[in-house]
Amino acid sequence: MDEKALADLVVGHVVDVPDFPHAGILFKDITPLFGDGAAFRQVVDGIVDHHGRSSFDVVAGVEARGFLLAGAIGYATGAGVLPVRKAGKLPREVLAASYALEYGEATLEVHRDAIEPGQRILVVDDVLATGGTAEATLSLIEQAGGIVTGFSVLIELAFLSGRARLAPRDVHALLTV
Ligand code: AMP
């Protein structure tokens, strides 16, 4: 499927929800995409085709919607899956990275032994907004000696300039708005 068709597919399966979870936020609800088996398979294949199935050893998914993409990409390619979790969820020793939210701060964690030095890791999530989440994920992976080979998101909110924080790495968005 070409890039235009993939972007149209995402457009057709996203619902814009005004003022969720806060006033002034236009929430991109992509659950209809996960609920349509054929569309979900097309976007997973689109992500894998963009990066190439042998370009990464592990796919990191950011809690929680990123887990759905990462699980499918891992199964499709034979790559391992790395869950990047919100603080306090993992049972063993962790690496942590904190980042600023609109109000306050959030922390992401991975198990300290989850990444091998030199391991090539693709990072996936549903939406790239300010890039804080993706940048914290990058920091976690690099702390552990891993190499981020690229990022994929279903939707990039270009007006928030998140990709600038990830430069010069490959940031792939199926749909840019
Ligand atoms: P950011 O760290 O600002 O790039 O925000 C990205 C994270 O917040 C992703 O994990 C998204 O799931 C979520 N997110 C941010 N903005 C939105 C939005 N407008 N609609 C849906 N999810 C969003």
Automatic annotation (TrEMBL):
Record Pfam families: Pribosyltran (PF00156)
Enzyme Commission number: 2.4.2.7
Record's function text: Catalyzes a salvage reaction resulting in the formation of AMP, that is energically less costly than de novo synthesis.
Catalytic activity reported: AMP + diphosphate = 5-phospho-alpha-D-ribose 1-diphosphate + adenine
Record InterPro entries: Ade_phspho_trans, PRTase-like, PRTase_dom, UPRTase/APRTase
Key word DNA repair present: no
Protein name, entry field: Adenine phosphoribosyltransferase
Subunit structure as annotated in this protein's UniProt entry: Homodimer.
Highest taxon of the lineage: Bacteria
UniProt family annotation: Belongs to the purine/pyrimidine phosphoribosyltransferase family.
Compartments, record wording: Cytoplasm
Functional pathway: Purine metabolism; AMP biosynthesis via salvage pathway; AMP from adenine: step 1/1
Record-linked HAMAP family: Aden_phosphoribosyltr
Domain Phosphoribosyltransferase span(s) in chain numbering: 52-155
Organism: Asanoa siamensis
Sample GO molecular function, one term: glycosyltransferase activity
Underlying gene: apt_1
Keywords from the UniProt entry: Cytoplasm, Glycosyltransferase, Purine salvage, Transferase
